[in-house]
Amino acid sequence: MRKHTRAALLCVTAALTLTACAAGKGGGSTSEAAAAPGQDDKLTLTVWSNFSDREYGEVTKALKTFNQKFPNIEIKHEGSQDDDKITAGIRSGNTPDVALSFTTDNIGQFCSSGAFQPLKAYIDRDKVDMDQINPAVREYTEYKGNRCAMPMLTDVYAMYYNEDMLAAAGITAPPKTMDELYDAAVKATKRAPNGDIEVAGYLPTMGFYANRPTILAPYFDAAWETADGKSALATSPGWTEMMTFQKKLVDFYGHDALERFRAGLGQEYSADHAFHQGKIAIMVDGEYRTAFLKAQAPQVRFRTAPFPTLKADQYGTAFTTGTIMGIPKGAKNPGAAWELIKHLSFDTDTIVGLANAIKNVPSTKAALESPKLEVDEAFKTFVDLARSDKLKGNPVTPIGDAHIKAVTDFSVSYQSGQVPDLAAGLKGVDQNIDDQIAKSGK
Predict the structure, then answer these.
(1) Is 75 helix (H, G, I), strand (E, B) or coil?
(2) In-domain check, residue 424
(3) Which end of the chain is least crowded, N or C, by CB within 10 Å?
(4) What is the pTM of this model?
């Protein structure tokens, strides 16, 4: 499972839980850099992550490469630890030295509450070249100038399309604009004699698989906030364009018919995934899907391309997110923890090895250019996007993903015909988000 579905919400009520975290037991967070361990020092570093199964093993291997630099430091990797467990650990004083989180939506909470310690002093002391990391990735690992996390690989999102289905529909090139996507979706759709959907060219339902506001917003040039920090759904035209595009496709399928069709589709990370089963022709997803398809659906002839954009000159835009690493408040070995984080963030061979193993995109320029990086035709789309200057990251707020949930819920209501006035509805969501941020105190 991947970041946007497997990560638990750290705290729906935003700052309350993490404020409690900052008041937890153990050593406090500090703006001073703890001393690095000596090369021969013996200690144990505890690492918590939410990786499991095969990915857990591959991440453990990457962690062990740290012993090339510090042979006497033992790495204790505990998997299946979500953000709720990290939060509880900080509150109780039972905290790891390094926490890996899939929930980049929570970076505002991590940084503003002190749950993750600030890293600026370490970065300044060690003269770390942050320009090695794409600006969009740097943005989703800090909050209001406070860097409290570093990236461990990234996910980049693009279009997957079934080559045979598009060819059968007379489509000779992947769509590049939303108008072209609509036309392709209509042409590639197949219905039974009774009108039931058998194949959806593109399934527009918000919340379905990777159809999420954060992932889709960049393709519509939809801004999350105004210049003065207020929610911008009603004032940024991209949101109206996104909602209108989705509603147009929902109306083409028929809402009830679409819901019946969707109810029969497989889970996102099972072999019954709709794209694997030939039930949808076009979708948005991350680079990791290439590995799932090869393992679970080798019969599917698919290709990848940048996802269509509202404006032709923005083609090549892509959303990015990824795993983040931080030193929790109360960590027993913060100096050694930083050395491990720095190693995982910038050691090219380690980054490339892990990227090849779990099929994520490297997070540094050097790793993206490494000849050791395994890049086939499908994966190349995501590597090229990661090298570009059109990547867009997560919107960072102090309320976790509450703003994303608000947009998703509203979109589902609008698609179903329950919202008669789109403009007024978007203003209402803006007010909801602004109120939640105001209540957070941050």
Answers:
(1) strand
(2) no
(3) N
(4) 0.90
Quick one: 118 and 130 in the same domain?
A: yes
| Total of domains in the chain | 2
Per-residue pLDDT of the chain (442 residues; tens, 9 = 90+): 444 444 333 333 333 344 434 434 334 455 789 999 998 899 999 999 999 998 999 999 999 999 999 999 999 999 999 888 988 988 888 999 999 998 888 898 899 889 999 999 999 999 999 999 999 999 999 998 999 999 999 999 999 999 999 999 999 999 999 999 999 999 999 999 999 999 999 999 999 999 999 999 999 999 999 999 899 999 999 999 999 999 999 999 999 999 999 999 999 989 999 999 999 999 999 999 999 999 999 999 999 999 999 999 999 999 999 999 999 999 999 999 999 999 999 999 999 999 999 999 999 999 999 999 999 999 999 999 999 999 999 888 888 889 999 999 999 999 999 999 999 999 999 999 999 999 987 7
Find the CATH number of the domain harbouring 129. Answer: 3.40.190.10
* Same domain assignment for residues 92 and 234: no
Query: 88 and 200 share a domain?
Result: no
Alpha-carbon distance values, 397 to 85, 110, 136, 403 (Å): 21, 10, 15, 8
The encoded tokens of residue 198 equal: 């058998």
Q: Is 428 helix (H, G, I), strand (E, B) or coil?
A: helix
Same domain, 308 and 381: no
Q: In terms of domains, do 315 and 196 share one? A: yes
Identify residue 396 by its one-letter amino acid code: V
Whole-angstrom Cα distance, residue 226 to residue 254? 35
Which of 319, 346, 375 corresponds to the end of one domain? 319
Whether residues 78 and 210 share a domain: the answer is: no
Q: Containing domain of residue 16, as a range?
A: 3-154+321-386
